[in-house]
Fold this protein.
Amino acid sequence: MKYTKSSVITLASVLAGSLAQASTDYGPAVYRPPSGCTKANSSGNGHSFAVCHDMEGYFASTISYLNRCDVSVSINYMVNGKQDTSTDYAAGSIDQQIRESLYAWHARCWNSYMWGTEHEGFASNPAWFTDAMYNATGPLQRHLMDVAGKAKDRNHVIGHDQKRISAWVTWVHANYAFDPSCNSHTDPGAMWDWTKLMNIINPPAGTSVIVDNGNAGFSASTGWATSTGSTDKYGADYRYHSTAALSDQAVWTGSPSGTHTAYAYYPQGSNRSTTAPFTVVHGGVSSAVSVNQQINGGTWVSLGSYGFNAGEDIKLSFWTGTGFVVIADAVKWQ
């Protein structure tokens, strides 16, 4: 699928408002299904594989093309590689076209066994295979393997060109009923960095990075008060603010690069917000996470697993239902 970059500039603004909603399958994705037609099968042989494609084209153009009802191709997810202009989607943006429970039309005889993800760019040019793309698609492929209950390895996370690996062809013949050589495609190609992707899917063991509200990586305005009153706090104290319709965020900075789970730590209380609005910045994009701070205090509460660039933020706003307080104490990436 080949498109001019000018089509991306035009479509980015048009598609932003077309049937887009948050994905209920995978939090960082935007769900944007085709309208007026069905482009997937409801039954198959169980999802056991995740296929990585490249678009041979651009992100916004491919969303538009695949959502056309006269095109007999579909995909579960799409990932953007670069933000080429201010009107383009952010690098690392994830779009979902087909629900994970369904079988998209992307890999011929493999369809009834496999999810598919299209990645912006070209097999002949790695310029769109950016860190933001790998840091976005790595956690997505990990999530798909977790849903499938399959090993996170190169037998199950594969390319559209996987038939070139003779050991995989032999392994499929021994374990599955489909033809591993029924595809003629060669994407994502030799310039796709499988080592980088698999290291994000299966990150090396490492130490946690913790930023407390008293550390150099934390910042908040003087409007955030300081307290030592709760015994289930992290460290010496914590910051708090009454909920109100104002923009004034507490910010923790310091994510390590790679795939990690983000956590928040706070002292609970009956006056806390049940919808404390955290924002996790990962791979240049942001995911909103609502936390009930009336429960689970004094423990590390997961905000989700993501692919991070080094030095990204976790933010907390107090712009939510009035009559409560939100607590800014500590976060960690692990």
Observations:
- Residues 48 and 148 are 6 Å apart (CA to CA).
- The radius of gyration is 22 Å.
- The chain has a mean pLDDT of 91.
